[in-house]
Amino acid sequence: MKRITIFSPNCYTYGAMIVGGVLKERFKGKYIIKLVRHLNNNILNLFLKSDVVILSLYSTLHILDNKLKEIIEFVRKQSKKRRDKNIKIYVGGPVSAYPEIVLREMKVDGVILGEGEISTPNVIEGHREGLAYLENGEIIINELKEKPELTSKPLIPDDIGSQNIRGANVYIETHRGCLGNCTFCQVPRFFGRKIRSKPLELVLEEVKEFKKKGVKRIAVSGGTGSLYNFKKDVNKSAFIELLEGIAEIVGSRNLSVPDMRVDYVDEDILGAIKKYTIGWVFYGIESGSDRILKSMKKGTNREKNLYAIQLAKENDVKVGGSFIVGYPGEREIDYLLTKDFIVEAELDDIFVSIAEPIPKTELCNLVIKTPLEENLTFKPHLGNYRRFNLTESEARCLDLMLHGEQWKPKPSVITKSKFLLYLNEAKRQGEDIRNITRLIFKYRDCLM
Ligand code: SF4
């Protein structure tokens, strides 16, 4: 039997599992489908035994991964030497939103575009709809407009129980799309702004299958949690039934709902989060400055953010908040407003990211238009942290992580090892974002 191997770097993403499930169903008896997540010699042998290798890539950094590029090169060379096998290598996943960059940077046979349920089997059958590829040096993009119904079953790997993504074994997708329009986010551009939800009975069946395969902790992902089955108003009962159903299977101590928009929660929803999950909510706050929130098209403001945090606390739900620093145009005063917000909010946990220009988002265009000497992720920091040789974004990232620790309801001591952990995290983020920024500058003509 022929083989298809799907490689999803470091973790089995839900998208890769769904594509695996669709291919298994469609090509029963014709192909053996295998999902892998770690690059090692066994995997290399598996690639060489395969007829098709699909690289399911979810970060721009994967396109820059030299080890992955070397492996692609090796597999192609080996394949050319053989008469019996011509191994096709395709890229799929969220990076397929910018096939021009993928095809110029990685020597693959094509990029499987958009949501993979329809395009992947098409491409395996030899069709070109849903595929971008190079022909005589020119990029051909055959987009598929059709959006799939969310009814496919995932292919669940046997070692899924050993996976740990921020405390959960798996992030399941209950719906796609987001009503929001945040400039830095790929979700509405990739999945659309209309919410498509998986029927409840299918979600619950899936959760049972995950449990059978050894999964203990489940997180609900997909846009923003409470938009599940969103019609005109928030369909609260659908979201609450969803949590109740999953908690019945895995137990409320094993269920979390990471992403929530502050304008789509209320007492009932927070009450259900308290009752059926680990009792945490995570809001995308992003900034304490209304000017920056407006520039991000976040659709919220400082007041709404503080209200949602207060509401969570009143319902005895712990609150985490994520923040973005180094957004184009973020002045010192905007950053100070974010610090001030954290003092007022007293969040139980905070996550800080340096603004990442994902290709084809509005933020990407904004970064391309900003001269590098004005870009905070390139501009040297001259303030309190100057002896650490940081850029301004890195300094704000480090400073905000330390600040968040000090303004938790129970502040923790910043030990030397914790400081170094945060310092390295800020530097790593800065380095990654600079590499991505250089990449988008290289391809700015096809991105703008
Ligand atoms: S609300 Fe969340 S998922 Fe929706 S566009 Fe904004 S960041 Fe993306």
Describe this structure in words.
The chain has 448 residues and is α/β, with parallel strands linked by helices. The chain has helices at residues 14-26, 41-49, 60-63, 66-81, 99-105, 116-124, 187-191, 200-212, 236-250, 267-276, 290-295, 302-314, 332-345, 362-369, 392-406, 416-442, 444-447, and strands at residues 2-7, 31-36, 52-56, 88-92, 110-112, 131-135, 138-142, 170-173, 175-176, 196-197, 218-221, 255-256, 259-260, 280-286, 318-325, 349-354. It folds into two domains: 2-142, Cobalamin-binding domain (Rossmann fold); 160-447, tm_1862 like domain (pyruvate-formate lyase- activating enzyme). Strand 6 and strand 7 (138-142) form a beta hairpin. The structure holds iron/sulfur cluster. Iron/sulfur cluster binds next to helix 7. Keywords: 4Fe-4S, Iron, Iron-sulfur, Metal-binding, S-adenosyl-L-methionine. InterPro entries: BchE-like, CHP04014_B12-bd/rSAM, Elp3/MiaA/NifB-like_rSAM, Methylthiotransferase_CS, rSAM, rSAM_horseshoe, rSAM_sf. Residues 164-392 form the Radical SAM core domain.
Briefly note the CATH topology name of the largest domain.
pyruvate-formate lyase- activating enzyme
CATH architecture of the largest domain: Alpha-Beta Horseshoe
Q: Name the CATH superfamily assignment of the largest domain.
A: tm_1862 like domain
Fraction of helical residues: 40-55%
Number of strands: 16
What does the radius of gyration come to? Answer: 22 Å
Q: What ranges have pLDDT less than 50 throughout 5 or more consecutive residues?
A: none
Return the domain count.
2
Count of alpha/pi helices:
17
Bound molecules: iron/sulfur cluster
Strand content: 15-25%
CATH C-level class of the largest domain is Alpha Beta
